[in-house]
Amino acid sequence: MNDSPTVTPAMEDYLKGIYELGGALGTVSTQQVAGRLSVSCPSATNMIKKLAALELLMHTPYRGVELTAQGTLIARRVLRHHELLELFLWRTLAIPPDQGHREADARPTRAPRLTAAAGPVDRRRPALSSWAESADAH
Ligand SMILES: [Zn+2]
Questions:
Q1: Which residues does 53 contact at the CB level (< 8 Å), separation at least 6?
Q2: 106 CA distance to ligand 1 centroid (A)?
Q3: Cα dihedral angle (83, 88, 93, 96), rounded to 10 degrees?
Q4: Which of 10, 40, 71, 86 could covalently link to 56 via disulfide, CB atoms 3.0 to 4.6 Å apart?
Q5: Which residues pair with 66 in a beta bridge?
């Protein structure tokens, strides 16, 4: 990740959301982004300006946003990490995919947020990191 600017989890959520709306292929409106992220348009615009300053997307006022190559790369990475987390939760802890999806979405690039029922996951966090790294290498 040394090639990336400092990207917060909130920024990653935006990049992932914009990517899922088709922002790697064309322009997505600010309203669409706000709807996707369940935030107000001013909040979305505020974050979009930050992402544009980092050159992770191009912002055309009154038209919308489009991801840059770098923004697309990060969005794909976030999505891949999400899928790896789901797979890990399912294969090693038998957490069903629908629940795993919510856990993975809660913290896109970090260890899943734990519910009381999933207590044992906590002790396995180091295993998750190395598992995800080795899986990423393939
Ligand atoms: Zn999912």
A1: none
A2: 10
A3: 20
A4: 71
A5: 58
